[in-house]
């Protein structure tokens, strides 16, 4: 699973970089969730400063709800909560949890926001330990930690308009970093539409993107997927393929990949993503998976699920769930990369 503090920038918004806004298009940017956001939109008479204040306040509310790096956030309070006790959660938290529960079930538990104890055990979390694979945790440690993993150990209830949450096992914790950035993109897009009547926009947070309508050139927004080159950076990244939004339509897209956060042990490259089922780092997974879905939150969660398991299993899982996905995988002679699209994307 990914964490707020380590953004995975694998999707580049070509028109944000290459197409300077003109006419009445505006651009604003800021910081959130340990990364940056960029927004380009046709604003008419709207003051971009006022729009940005609204967006920043909305993002702050999402962070206050779900950031594991804020000790007073709702999610941090829940993670410290003993089993059997209830905590009141907000609508944002409840929606992200419900999205997570859906992907958890549909992905056969490949996506699981309770995986955080395993991430910490392997040294890939807040206490990063790059040498961890040199002395990996014992099978007993993995097995005992896995007892804290499983979204079925978290119970959501609703009383009237209020949502409550509790855990059935002490030590269970949630980490929504593999879906919250996508949700935040949805939040900004909805703010632009519902608060300001904006139809033409592109919203990006840490590589997760929502677009609608047309860009400043009157054309469909075009997004680039990065080549998953080991140790590449934002400055030297290259585009391997592009995706265009239907003109006057919408696009919700997220990319996940471990190639910027991986290591080699005994000749095998391991992602820092932990498979919640095996309890171990993933080897043999696709370096990059891009998902198109009804919302960026669902795209974000599914992209993580499909990188948390070996590539062939992920491709089978995506096809079984009719997920629109693009896998970028190393070709047979290891001289480059192949692009593999799921059936839902090619039909």
From TrEMBL:
Origin superkingdom: Bacteria
Coiled coil, from the record: none
EC number in record: 2.7.1.180
Cofactor: Mg(2+)
One Pfam family here: ApbE
GO MF terms, alphabetically ordered: transferase activity
Ion transport in keyword set: no
Keywords noted in UniProt: FAD, Flavoprotein, Magnesium, Metal-binding, Transferase
Annotated InterPro entries: ApbE, ApbE-like_sf
Reaction catalysed by this enzyme: L-threonyl-[protein] + FAD = FMN-L-threonyl-[protein] + AMP + H(+)
Family classification: Belongs to the ApbE family.
Protein name listed in UniProt: FAD:protein FMN transferase
UniProt organism field: Moraxella nasicaprae
Organism placement in taxonomy: Bacteria, Pseudomonadati, Pseudomonadota, Gammaproteobacteria, Moraxellales
């Amino acid at each position: 699973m990914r964490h707020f503090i380590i953004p995975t920038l694998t999707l580049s918004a070509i028109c944000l970089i290459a197409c300077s806004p003109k006419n009445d298009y505006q651009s604003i940017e800021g910081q959130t969730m340990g990364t940056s956001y960029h927004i380009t939109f046709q604003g008419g008479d709207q003051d971009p400063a006022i729009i940005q204040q609204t967006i920043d306040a909305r993002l702050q509310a999402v962070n206050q709800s779900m950031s594991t790096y804020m000790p007073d956030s709702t999610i941090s309070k829940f993670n410290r909560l003993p089993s059997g006790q209830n905590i009141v959660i907000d609508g944002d938290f409840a929606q992200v949890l419900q999205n997570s529960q859906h992907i958890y079930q549909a992905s056969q538990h490949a996506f699981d926001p309770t995986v955080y104890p395993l991430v910490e055990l392997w040294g890939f979390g807040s206490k990063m330990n790059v040498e961890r694979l040199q002395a990996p945790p014992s099978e007993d440690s993995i097995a005992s930690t896995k007892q804290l993993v499983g979204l079925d150990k978290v119970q959501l209830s609703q009383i009237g308009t209020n949502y409550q949450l509790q855990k059935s096992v002490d030590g269970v914790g949630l980490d929504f970093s593999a879906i919250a950035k996508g949700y935040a993109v949805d939040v900004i897009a909805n703010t632009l539409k519902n608060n300001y009547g904006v139809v033409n926009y592109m919203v990006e947070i840490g590589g997760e993107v929502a677009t609608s309508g047309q860009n400043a050139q009157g054309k469909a927004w075009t997004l680039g997927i990065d080549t998953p080159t080991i140790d590449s950076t934002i400055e030297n990244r290259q585009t391997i393929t592009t995706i265009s939004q239907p003109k006057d339509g919408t696009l919700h897209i997220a990319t996940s990949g471990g190639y910027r956060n991986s290591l080699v042990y005994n000749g095998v490259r391991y992602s820092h993503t932990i498979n919640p089922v095996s309890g171990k780092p993933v080897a043999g997974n696709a370096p990059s998976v891009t998902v198109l879905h009804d919302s960026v939150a669902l795209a974000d969660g599914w992209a993580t699920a499909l990188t948390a398991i070996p590539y062939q299993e992920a491709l089978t899982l995506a096809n079984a769930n009719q997920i629109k996905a693009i896998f970028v995988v190393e070709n047979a002679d290891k001289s480059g990369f192949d692009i593999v699209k799921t059936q839902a994307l090619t039909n």
